[in-house]
Amino acid sequence: MLIGTHALVFTGTFDAAGLRRAIEGTAQAGFDLVEIPLMDPDSFDSHLARRLLDDTDLRVTASLGLTEATDLSSEDPAVVAAGEAMLTRCLDHLATMGGDVLCGVIYSAMRKYSSPATAAGVAASQAALGRLAVAARERGIRLSLEVVNRYESNVMNTARGGLAFLDGIGDPEVSLHLDSYHMNIEEPDMWQPVLDAADRLGYVHIGESHRGYLGTGSVDFDSFFRALDRAGYDGPVVFESFSSAVVSPELSTTLGIWRNLWQDSDDLAAHANRFIRGRLHAVRTIALH
Ligand code: MN
């Protein structure tokens, strides 16, 4: 099981200095893996990222949320094609970096919609993701679709909804990506959805209810980590936290990061690494009871 952190814990800009800060900070905090956002693949230097990663033992994954211009759930075929092309560029970047999972809101725009998803839009997204799964497989990458709350997508907001969406893609290697922050908003509890999705769970985000320090909000991490253990989950577990202390031009406004919940990225990351590993270590002993 790989324990990681989102790079936005350290930087909101992914130029050379930002990449260096994120990769060095992630390694220094004790993580196994860094998740790099590819919101702007046109300006991203994946060859540089690969060189910086090669100086560490870190594994890498990538994530993003689509925009209105690249929304796979659009009823406009030109927008879907733009999204497919953009995600293919992200797959190329991730392959260059040596990563094996592309995750996040890669099935719709990451934004608040003003109406429900349409059947045609959902079908368009599923068809595009079926083609992208083939392109990903050719590059040694698997896709994992992040279930997010109602203010960030209208396509799927619960694990149950995510499983139904996966059924429409029909590719067994496309998995669900669950995030404790979103689950805390939408799910009945933090246990049952993990068990329901166990066979299709491919990626996990660990976020607090306010996206700050783990253990200072209302997420029921006791149930969540027990559920991951009970489900036999063995994939990446990645910390995600956002504060106005670190600003991303693309992500901070989309996610509504208006408050400063922490100042010190290194302290936050080291604490999260200890928190996640401590919980996982403890729940493994339940098998002895
Ligand atoms: Mn997340």
Provide the fold topology:
Elements: E1 3-6, H1 16-29, E2 33-37, H2 46-54, E3 59-66, H3 77-97, E4 101-109, H4 119-138, E5 142-146, H5 159-169, E6 175-179, H6 180-186, H7 192-196, E7 201-206, H8 221-230, E8 237-239, H9 251-255, H10 265-284
Parallel strand pairs: 1-2, 1-8, 2-3, 3-4, 4-5, 5-6, 6-7, 7-8
Helix pairs in contact: 1-2, 1-10, 2-3, 3-4, 4-5, 8-10
The structure holds manganese (II) ion.
Structure description:
42% of the residues lie in helices and 16% in strands. With 289 residues, the chain is an alpha/beta fold. It has a single domain (3-288), classed as TIM Barrel (Alpha-Beta Barrel). An 8-stranded parallel beta barrel has the order 1-2-3-4-5-6-7-8, surrounded by 6 helices. α1 (16-29) packs across α10 (265-284), α2 (46-54) packs parallel to α3 and α4 packs across α5 (159-169). The mean pLDDT is 97. Residues 146, 179, 205, 240 line the site of manganese (II) ion (MN). Residues 146, 179, 205, 240 line the site of manganese (II) ion.
